[in-house]
């Protein structure tokens, strides 16, 4: 893979770079049949095509997937003419921004015309203008590790901003000055934190400085775009790294102000654990319990579970600090913040519910719950029960091994009881022994509020005593009805 740059390197760095390039060659050979075929079609039409950005970065890291990004000097209407006869499917969702998408075999492909884009200082949308050279296109990209290209089918490597060196050093820098880059698109400040978390890279000091000084610029970016970057950060392999960067630069103040608010002031008279560090640890411990890949609902709940503490903190006379009802306050705050970030109603509901329920288990550790209490716990958690198990276990960050083991044993015991009751009573679908139609028939009443009241009473009996059986349930219903009429 010829290099368009001729900079000299020390022997050790040359070795490292050669290893990186060998990985890239291997990855590129895998996608060559499709990529080269497409490139030849562009060449025959008088245009150039190059693999670019994240695709080149991931190829160099040995992790290129089946999503391929290309850049070209062809305008979007010309790109459509070339790909339509070739691709299995074509979509034009991003054509206003110069991007044509298509699918070929197992590959999802995006072809974007050389461009430069910049924000008006008061606009939420980028203004797109097309460029004429690949160098002009690369300089407008967010980071040097994403500003590399491989011109096809020749496989000429283009790296005008030393992205390969930064990739080998695992550092994030901007092609131009970070101030210019973040002024063009303030969302890049969020991307810096996201890539640090995804790739486990360090962010260059001058980039961190610019993020800190320009954090207010993020205000012009839409909530949806900010949310999407935050999600990618949270489900990454190293979210603590990205979240710390958001807090330290002040970006979290605009995105998730509840997180830096957890860094509560402490004094020598009133001691409590560091809620901010505790939260980041709970998030990582929740990740350890995931079985089928990243779980955004669980991770958001772990991140937000204690955000009600700053508002509920009280200094007690005995020197202790209390946070009474912080789970209830936190659930309301979670709903408000997630709604502001334009999360779906279902996601808001699930995460808020987990935050509200995350302390419920601790009543179990102080005394034996009745079967009724276990049923209510399962009923209230509903389909979130498995996530609630994981969140509750993750919430233990004490260094006191005896206390930690006791909590773990208590939760083991609760899960065993839930399993036994589920086997006996089908807890996942707790319903009264009599449904609404049966209630109306037995009592001889028509649909109305009384049916709902009767149903609620029968549900309470079911939760308190377990399955009654039909005869006992009918007798209990008639007894309740008689009491209502008297």
Biggest sheet details = 7 strands, mixed
- The CATH class name of the largest domain reads Alpha Beta
Find the CATH topology of the largest domain. Beta Polymerase, domain 2
Q: Order of strands across the biggest sheet?
A: 3-4-5-2-1-8-9
Overall body shape: elongated
Q: Terminal Cα separation, in Å?
A: 91 Å
| Number of strand elements | 13
Low-confidence stretches: 4-12
Structural class: alpha+beta
**C-alpha Rg, in Å?**
29 Å
Number of domains: 4
Approximately how much helix is present in the residues?
40-55%
GO molecular function, one term: metal ion binding
Cofactor: Mg(2+)
Organism: Streptomyces cinnamoneus
Keywords: Magnesium, Metal-binding, Nucleotide-binding, Nucleotidyltransferase, Transferase, tRNA processing
Would you kindly provide a written description of the structure presented here, covering whatever features stand out?
Helices cover about 55% and strands about 10% of the residues. The protein contains 22 helices and 13 strands. With about 475 residues, it is of the alpha+beta class. It is elongated. Strand 4 and strand 5 (about 105-115) form a beta hairpin. The protein folds into four domains: about 1-170, Beta Polymerase, domain 2 (2-Layer Sandwich), CATH 3.30.460.10; about 170-255, Hydrophobic Seed Protein (Orthogonal Bundle), CATH 1.10.110; about 275-430, no CATH class; about 435-485, no CATH class. It has helices spanning about 10-45, 55-60, 75-85, 135-140, 165-170, 180-185, 185-200, 205-215, 225-235, 240-250, 250-255, 275-290, 295-305, 310, 325-340, 345-355, 370-380, 385-395, 400-425, 435-445, 450-465, 470-485; strands spanning about 50, 65-70, 90, 100-105, 105-115, 115-120, 125-130, 150, 155-160, 170, 200-205, 315, 320.
